[in-house]
Design goal:
Layout lengths: L1 H43 L2 E4 L2 E5 L4 E12 L2 E12 L8 E14 L2 E11 L5 E5 L3 E4 L2 E4 L2 E5 L4 E5 L2 E3 L3 H4 L1
Antiparallel strand pairs: 1-3, 2-3, 3-4, 4-5, 5-6, 6-7, 6-8, 7-10, 8-9, 9-12, 10-11
InterPro entries: LPS_export_LptA, OstA-like_N
Organism: Candidatus Nitrobium versatile
Protein name: LptA/OstA family protein
Length: 174
C-alpha cells in the first residue's frame, strides 16, 4: 500500500510540474507574441512627409521632396533641404525602403539630435540611418562627432568612425 501511495504522489507531483511548465510556456509565448506584435506595429507606423514641392517617378519607384522637407514616423523626425524617397517594388504598397536626405540634415528622436550634411535612412533589415558630412550627435550637453555615424533607431545604438566625444560630468558640477 505504501508503494502505491508514493507512486500516486509522484504522479500528482508530475502533473503539477506539467501544469507549471505549461503555464510558464504559455507566459513565454504571450510575451514573445506581444514583442512580435510591437515590432509589427512599429513597421506599420505611417510616415508623413511634407515639403514645398514633390516630383514622383512611379516607374523608378521614387519621390523627390524639395524645400523644407520634414519626414515624421512615430517619435522620429527627419529634416532636410531635399529627400529622395525609394519605395518598395510591390505595386501599391507605398512602403518606404530608403530615404536619401541632403542639406541641413537633422534627425530628432527623443532627447537625441543628429545633424549632418547627408543622411541615408534604411527601413530594413534593421531600421537605421547613416550620417556623413560632419555628423554631430547631441544629447543634453553631451556631444559626439565623427566622419561617419550610423544610428540604429530600433535599439538606440550608434557606431561612429573617427569619433570625438565631449561628455559633461553632472556629478562634479553639483
Amino acid at each position: 500500500m505504501k508503494n502505491k501511495s508514493e507512486h500516486g504522489t509522484r504522479r500528482a507531483g508530475s502533473g503539477a510540474y506539467v501544469f507549471i511548465i505549461g503555464v510558464l510556456l504559455a507566459h513565454c509565448l504571450l510575451i514573445a507574441g506581444a514583442s512580435f506584435a510591437a515590432e509589427k506595429n512599429a513597421a506599420k507606423t505611417p510616415t508623413v512627409i511634407t515639403s514645398q514641392s514633390l516630383t514622383a517617378d512611379n516607374k523608378a519607384r521614387t519621390a523627390l521632396f524639395e524645400g523644407s522637407v520634414v519626414a515624421k514616423k512615430g517619435d522620429m523626425t527627419l529634416f532636410a533641404d531635399t529627400m529622395l524617397v525609394h519605395y518598395s517594388d510591390e505595386k501599391g504598397s507605398g512602403t518606404i525602403k530608403k530615404i536619401d536626405a541632403e542639406g541641413n540634415v537633422k534627425l530628432v528622436k527623443g532627447d537625441r539630435i543628429v545633424t549632418a550634411k547627408f543622411a541615408t535612412y534604411f527601413a530594413e533589415p534593421e531600421e537605421h540611418a547613416v550620417f556623413t558630412g560632419d555628423p554631430k550627435a547631441t544629447e543634453g550637453e553631451n556631444v559626439v562627432t565623427g566622419s561617419k555615424m550610423i544610428y540604429y533607431l530600433s535599439n538606440d545604438r550608434s557606431v561612429v568612425q573617427n569619433s570625438r566625444v565631449f561628455l559633461v560630468n553632472k556629478e562634479k558640477q553639483k
